Automatic annotation (TrEMBL):
It comes from the Eukaryota. This is Alpha-methylacyl-CoA racemase. The chain crosses the membrane at residues 21-41. It holds the Pfam family CoA_transf_3. Residues 337-351 have a biased composition (Basic and acidic residues). One of its GO terms (molecular function) is alpha-methylacyl-CoA racemase activity. One of its GO terms (biological process) is bile acid metabolic process. Keywords: Isomerase, Membrane, Transmembrane, Transmembrane helix. The keyword Isomerase applies. Belongs to the CoA-transferase III family. GO terms for cellular component: mitochondrion.
């Protein structure tokens, strides 16, 4: 694969002028070296978060693979190592000795089988943070079972609560287990372990289970059962599309508006914006009348376009917003004002890293994603290997390097 080599150099220091001096800010995770073993979706997201906030993330890919499946590769470098060779395993161990974090997304037992388990690696580098990201965690009878987001969400209990009235459970893309409960939760674990290491000087093992991560993200659902928030069947409660004032409505141009007018003061504004007469409507909290109210709102919203409703509700504090498509998002005034979306060098648009840190904000890399093995030589040199060592490993097929042709 040929493409132009783009600089992966980010401005590691953000400069901010103040009246007396120029202050240099270092990104929060600058200086942290991460070895990420290539995975499907959750671990790549975790690696991208660390990279966005300044860590040097090296993705370890397999050899003899043409295309990376990692769509979350922003800012990473790729080294291709054959871990089915003794030399490849020895090489990875050497990389881990000089790193702060290793992130592995394989089925339980895979790393141990390779001789790369936490026992071995922490012995060689006691400061290493060994992050494991799996569906079911490192123990329990499902620990070695294959699975995907929908399975983890199902076992967390959350999936049973997701879906509309009378319909089967519905998984909202693969966001909750893979990304919220998986990649994001694992990145939190890594940052916590890095923070703790500043005091103890010691690394530790992080066991991220996407089932538990998703369940934890769902703590509100669990712990608000005691106030009766989820007493009705799926899709018939306040926040699961049961209530007419917490739902989406189609507009006359086939787009949608999102309504979140829960509190009475916002609900009053919703009724005002819809030009309805509150006196002629059932009470907001009369659950039995919710289907009737939903019908009334449906008819009202269908009478104007999304742009018309947006104009009305942008001026009213009613918690009503347009449901923006990906095409509309970055040109929305609010998102534009905050520069919430970025474009990389190939023109691909994506969300900018969140949250925004006031002194040490993320500086996401805008170069295009690495091809497999693009940085093998560069990284191995950085870790102290000589050109002769590298040539020998290349010749033996222990590592591969894909040269990226510079644009002529
Ligand atoms: C719903 C999501 C998943 C969404 C993913 C999609 C984004 C992608 C899914 C399919 C992709 C498309 C497809 O591949 C076809 C095209 C390919 C093309 O190249 C690109 C375009 C494609 C259209 C492509 C596009 C996209 O990428 C897709 C649409 C999820 O839920 S993700 C969460 C999954 N679960 C976990 O991560 C939990 C923990 N992991 C696991 O449970 C298992 O790893 C898993 C995921 C079940 C896979 O099990 P598997 O048996 O395959 O592997 P493991 O048991 O873990 O063992 C790994 C073996 O690999 C060896 N190994 C590792 N590194 C190396 C190396 N460097 N060298 C040599 N060998 C290596 C390791 O030793 C293991 O070997 P053994 O089996 O012998 O022990």
């Amino acid at each position: 694969m040929q493409r132009a080599a783009a600089s992966r150099e980010r401005k590691p220091l953000a400069q901010v002028s103040c009246p007396r001096k120029v202050i240099l800010f270092i990104m929060a995770l600058a200086g942290v070296r991460v070895i990420e073993l290539a995975g499907l979706a959750p671990a790549p997201f975790c690696g991208m978060i660390l990279s966005d906030f300044g860590a040097k993330v090296i993705r370890v890919d397999r050899t003899k693979v043409a295309t990376a499946v990692d769509t979350q590769a922003r800012g990473k470098r790729s080294v291709a190592i054959n871990l089915k060779s003794t030399e490849g395993v020895a090489l990875l161990r050497k990389l881990c000795v000089q790193s702060d974090v290793v992130l592995e997304p394989y089925r339980k037992g895979v790393m141990e089988k390779l001789g790369l388990g936490p026992k071995e690696l922490l012995k060689e580098n006691p400061r290493l943070i060994y992050a494991r990201l799996t569906g079911y965690g490192q123990s329990g009878s499902y620990a070695t079972a294959a699975g995907h987001d929908i399975n983890y969400l199902a076992i967390s209990g959350l999936l049973s609560r997701l879906g509309r009235r009378g319909e089967k459970p519905f998984a909202p893309l693969n966001l909750l287990a893979d990304f919220a409960g998986g990649g994001l939760t694992c990145s939190l674990g890594i940052v916590l372990a890095l923070l703790e290491r500043t005091k103890s000087g010691k690394g530790q093992i992080i066991d991220t289970s996407m089932v538990e991560g998703a369940a934890y993200v769902g703590s509100f659902v669990w712990k608000s059962r005691r106030i009766g928030l989820w007493d009705n069947p799926r899709g018939q409660n306040l926040l699961d599309s049961g209530a007419p004032f917490y739902d989406t409505y189609q507009t006359s141009d086939g787009k949608y508006m999102a309504v979140g007018a829960i509190e009475p003061q916002f609900y009053r504004q919703l009724i005002k914006g819809l030009e309805l007469d509150a006196g002629e409507l059932p009470d907001q909290m009369s659950v039995n009348d919710w289907p009737e109210l939903q019908q009334i709102f449906t008819e009202r919203f269908a009478s104007k376009t999304q742009a018309d409703w947006s104009k009305i509700f942008d001026r009213i504090d009613a918690c009503v917003t347009p449901v923006l498509s990906f095409d509309q998002v970055s040109s929305h005034q609010h998102n534009q004002e905050r520069a919430s979306f970025i474009k990389d060098s190939s023109g691909e648009e994506s969300p900018r890293p969140a949250p925004v840190l006031s002194r040490t904000p993320a500086e996401p890399c805008l170069a295009s994603d690495p091809v497999i093995g693009e940085h093998t030589v560069e990284v191995l040199k950085e870790f102290g290997f000589t050109s002769a060592d590298i040539d020998q490993m290349l010749a033996a097929g222990v590592v591969e390097c894909s040269a990226v042709k510079a644009k002529l």
